[in-house]
């Protein structure tokens, strides 16, 4: 696969900054075919100890950031009458994790958001789906203590963490035109 890559740095929790960035992207590339919305943060803490700021930053980045990116991408895709949006959520949004009420709530919100948006955009040939991976080996998860990583591994039937490459392959499943019938689906 060849192609050109560019970096666009902006705060996805900032509505205006996101809109402006997507306008630049659409202008630079003459449109937008695919959005993989995959930004996320954690601020793990038991609910009774969680500060409002820890709740807010996770919801603003994970859920509001998904809204901001999806909205900005949808504006271009609706004009084109085509596009693919893939929102990355988490199995934590389906099952919950102790110490992650904020994270689980944000990721569960993305599931409902995806299902509703899929129904809004489908008439214009824009598909919206979600992927809910389990534990993926990333910078965010590598900072967890070894004991916690081992405890997670024991719950995974394959006894290994997912990789970025595997997640990319799952996302690419949604791209061909033949998949345009898949709307509001959650793959986990």
Automatic annotation (TrEMBL):
For this chain's UniProt record, which GO biological process terms are given? monocarboxylic acid metabolic process
Name the Gene Ontology molecular function terms of this record: 3-oxoacyl-[acyl-carrier-protein] reductase (NADPH) activity
EC number(s) reported in the record: 1.1.1.100
Does this UniProt record's set of keywords contain Lyase? no
Keyword rRNA-binding (UniProt): no
* Keywords carried by this UniProt record: Oxidoreductase
InterPro entries xrefs: NAD(P)-bd_dom_sf, Sc_DH/Rdtase_CS, SDR, SDR_fam
Under catalytic activity, the entry for this protein gives: a (3R)-hydroxyacyl-[ACP] + NADP(+) = a 3-oxoacyl-[ACP] + NADPH + H(+)
Which segments does the entry list as coiled coil? none
For this chain, the family text in UniProt reads:
Belongs to the short-chain dehydrogenases/reductases (SDR) family.
For this entry, the protein name equals 3-oxoacyl-[acyl-carrier-protein] reductase
Organism listed in the record:
Geodia barretti
Species lineage, top-down?
Eukaryota, Metazoa, Porifera, Demospongiae, Heteroscleromorpha
